[in-house]
Structure formats: C-alpha cells, structure tokens
Amino acid sequence: MFGKTGIELLQEVAQCPADSLPAFNEEAFRNVIDEVHLQHERLTSVYNESRERHRQRQLEAGEDPEEGGAGWRGTEAEASELMVYHSAILRNKRLLFTYVKERLDRIQELRWTHRTLPDHVKANLSPLELQYFRQYDKLLSRYMRSGAGGVGLDLTADPSPPDDPYVQVRVLRDYGDIVFTSGKVSLQRGKSHWLPKDEVHPLVMDGVLEILAGNS
What is the mean pLDDT of the chain? Predict the structure, then answer.
C-alpha cells in the first residue's frame, strides 16, 4: 500500500533494453491509482476522527468547539499518521508520473533513431502512446521540412558531424536510380558505393543500404 506496485512499474521499464518498451501495464497503473484513493480516504478518516476527539476534549473542558476544525491540535501520533499517508500519496503520484515520462522519452528517442516505431515496440504501446508518437512525428517532420517554419534539414540523419562526408555502403535490395548531391546512382543489390553520409541515413534505416564496417 505504500509504493510497492509503483516501484515495480518503474522496474519493468528500467530492466527493458533502451530501444524497447514493455507492454503498458494498465492493471498495475490502475492499482496504484486505487491505492492513492485508499490512502486519501484513510488520511481523511484519521483527520476527521482526530478532529472529533479534539472537539470532545473541548466540550469536556467547558470550551466552545471551534467550528470547522480551526485550532485543531492532534496528538503527535495522529500527526505522524497523517504525514505518512500524505507522503505515500505524493510518492505514488511521482511514481506514476515517472513511469509515463520514461515511456514517452523512449518513444521520442525511437523517432530520432528509427524514424518509425519497430513492430515489437508498437505492439506494447497504449492507444494514447501511439497517438503521442503520431503527433510528435508530425511536429518533428514539419519542423525539419523545407519552407515556411521549417529548417530544411533532416536532424535525425546523424547526431554528430562526420569525420568524412562520404561513407561506403552496400545495397541490400534493388531500389532503382536515386539522385544524391554527388550525382545519380543506380542502387542494385550487392553493389557498393561511396555516398554522402548525411544522405544515406534514411536509406539505411529503411533497409535499402548498409554501412560497411569501418565507415560508421
């Protein structure tokens, strides 16, 4: 009742490879929410019971009960119990927020490294996470395109400047003729070419080309 399920949720993500995600654990997620509701109910109950005892003590002492709990003075044990439940609620909320954020961070990273969601990842996403990826993909593509508001540059091509602007690649499947800044090239399966590194990345991601060893 004090964060165990939330911690297990985070461990599911932490133990998964960086380029993957476990299935969204909706059952455990809802269990943590239910746990927060129970903690809030218990906190409210403890406070109301303590306030009522305070009121009874006032009556026994011949004092006028202070309306609405103003001036409430609980015992040290009561205050400690209230703090435990309040802290547990905040902790569970932070665990859920972290679980969601870690998953979304990985989804964003996959857009930069893979351009599209791998099938094994897509199958593990919730409907809202799939919607998030589509919207993020749309915004990023709009920002990178040429024209008004765009930078006209594929920012996902290479996160660091290459030492050599050209790289040797092998064609994995026939793709026909394509024009690079270095000229027109016929991509035929099994052939090797030296091509501009920043222009081959999309074709590598699509499985058309592979970068030969020592040229990455």
Answer: 87
